[in-house]
Amino acid sequence: MWTAWLAVAVLSVQVPVTPSGAPQGPPAEQRPADPAPAADEPPVDQYVEAVTVRGQATDVPEPGVAARRVMDATLLQAVRGVLADDPVRVVQSLPEVAAGDDFNAQFAVRGHGPTHLGLAIDGVDSPLLFHTVRGVNDTGSLAFINTDVLGGAALMAGAYPQRAGAYLGARVDFTTRDGARDRLRGRALFSASGVTAVAEGPLGRVRPDGQARASWMVAARKSYLGWLLGQVDPSRTERFGFVDGTAMLTADLSPTQSLRLLAIGGDAALDDRISAPGLNSLVRALNQSGVFSAQWRYAPGRRIVWTQQAYVVAARYQNRVPDGRTREEGHDRDVTVRSTVQVALTPTHGLEVGAQQQWMRADRLDRSFSTRGETVTLDRDGAWTAAGTWAYYRWQVTPRLQWTGGLRADRSSLTGTSALSPVLLAEWAPATAWRVRGGVGRQHQLARFDDTWPLPADGRQPDAERASTTDLGLEWRGATHWRLHLDGYARRERDRLRLEQSEYRRVGTTLVAPRQPFRLNAMTGRAHGATATLGYLRPPHVQAMLSYSLASATLHDVTTGESFASDFDQRHTVNASVRVQPGRGVGLTSRIRYGSNFPIVGYLDTVSATQWRIGTRRNESRLPAYSRVDVRADWTPAWRGRRVTVFAEVINALGRRNLGPQSYSVRLPAGTVTGATEPLFPVVPSAGVLVQF
């Protein structure tokens, strides 16, 4: 089977078309400048004259996608924090993004949580791109890459073309930037929470035009975030830290060919210094991950761009108890080969076709300990393949109207399941300042390794989860610096997975304990919402964004007949960010986030702020509303040809007492519950110095 997919890959093609008929692909530095880093895409009547394969475009247009948010490298750098240099946390400030746990970089969009959201770095699509503690429920996470090496980020939700991977919900695509091609450059950031260093430069001879044909870049980070949080809040016993490194090589092999190599590796560790640990208490957790990607691009003419990519993602984890024995451990490996070709068939018609093949392997081993010895509670491993192919066709009907139609198909040998997701998008520009975007599409997500147990008594394997979405968006770009986005959606879901019989619940007056849980495609769902986003963009002096989202997401279990709010249902979300440069070398940044917050997952009725009781309805109790204001000031004086930037930052500057979720304990037989929430970040000051040369 996989040889057939590779044959398709070699013959396949990918090109969104512009009105001129030229395929997309020029790097950001060769495009007409857009003064709005957070804009969706260039106007539909933009003319692209030439093709080059050097570098990667930060903002490849996606006409018709109503909910698409873009941040370029400048905005990523401006909004990032000193405390945790994490581009995923920067994405949390975008419209519709709901995040109510300071310890986790992961977030929710439109009622979908991390398991249904996609994340890719230069096309490397994997759920393993985080520093985290695996195999347990209560954990934290940070992105596997630092902001300094990125060229941009794009968030898409609703109906959109699915290329790198198929997900039920939104996805985030990060693109790295090329290293400097003119001379050696470097930067080093020193702060109370960590150290970051980046070096880059040309490879080979610098040509008369001041640019070399190849460049390199290396970056490294070491975090002291756990130590800093321990100083701010001595009651916390956990100490989380990580170290990672990134290496990149980009080369123009010829005027029509380019090669890009990317390697990322890192370790994360958690030490929990609890005062009276039990036999099964987690005191030490290790997580090691690595990524290697090779991407080759070939543009034999103005109308064709062919891209081949191969990457490997590998990870292993170990969780240890006080006497040094391992409680949970596992390994994951993903080898992927992908091929796409973009072709402009005519000046107004374009075709994009691609395919990928994956070879994956994973194993899990869980134990529990007692005075009599150890018990293996889970021992499972597997190897499987997955294949996907996609095709999208674009037609520029008039200079102001274009549409995109196509589909994606996937099959996995893990469960023997296949799924198909069609999409139809349209974009209309009734006037120069206005854009109307709309689309209908079906998304699917195949079961992962951790979704395939425990199974029901009949041994039925999980089917794909599916959703159908309708999107409509309106954008206005004022003649000055104002921008307004209005978009709404409606979604229906089916075959959502649920771990049945896994939670305490009350039936009448009887308390029912968990018993032999099993995973089943038992749920349907509905979701709808609307978002308004207002932006004022006058770089470099002012960059501001304010968004409000109203949403609802509910699920219905067809097996039990019960209905409840989605685990990541957040009704009201407000995100805002402001970057002001009042004077030369001086910058002020503020990020404001508010969310009405998610349910406390389970059958809990609220008794008091610190106590709950097992109830009859799921997800009835909610976390208190989340609110956080972060402020940062930076000053960059000129000093002998070098740039030294001094940062000062305060996380949760207003001292809001936010609460996040954690695993709770149930006291029997009364069914009282304690420990369902935990305090999040207090006021956390930080400072740092960035040196560039």
Q: Characterize the overall form.
A: globular
* Residue share in β-strands: over 45%
Q: Count every beta strand, where a strand is a DSSP E run of 2 or more residues.
A: 41
Mean pLDDT rating: 88
Number of helices: 4
CATH class designation: Mainly Beta
The CATH superfamily name is TonB-dependent receptor, beta-barrel domain
Number of domains: 1
At CATH level 3, the topology is Maltoporin, Chain A
Question: Which percent bin holds the helix content?
Answer: under 10%
Rounded to the nearest angstrom, the distance between the terminal CA atoms is: 52 Å
Report the C-alpha radius of gyration, rounded.
25 Å
Low-confidence runs = 1-59
The largest sheet is: 22 strands, antiparallel, barrel
Class from helix and strand fractions = mainly beta
**From the coordinates shown, what is the CATH architecture?**
Beta Barrel
